[in-house]
Specification:
The protein is an alpha+beta fold and 69 residues long. It has one domain. Helix content is 20%, strand content 35%. Strands 3-2-1-4-5 form a five-stranded mixed sheet, with helices on one face. The longest helix is centred in the middle third of the chain and has 14 residues. It starts with 5 loop residues before the first strand and ends with a strand.
Length: 69
């Protein structure tokens, strides 16, 4: 089974939470809260059998969600 893309939830330079594909140059969408960004990333990743990597405010990885289908 092929693994889908990784989606990263991280804080950008303007203080917004972004959802970004692993090799993407631009964010898919920006959010005011990390909670909203995580929910969006999970829905996008779930549709594509991908997974979500959640970063802390300092950029370090907080959690990697490897969803099982």
């Amino acid at each position: 089974m092929a693994i889908g893309q990784k989606y990263h939830v991280s804080l950008n330079d303007e203080g917004k939470w972004q959802v970004k594909g692993e090799k993407a140059g631009k964010a898919l969408k920006l959010f005011s809260t990390q909670k909203e960004a995580i929910a969006y990333a999970k829905s996008v990743a779930g549709n594509q059998e991908g997974n979500v990597v959640i970063h802390k405010t300092d950029g370090k990885i907080r959690k990697q969600d490897y969803s099982k289908k």
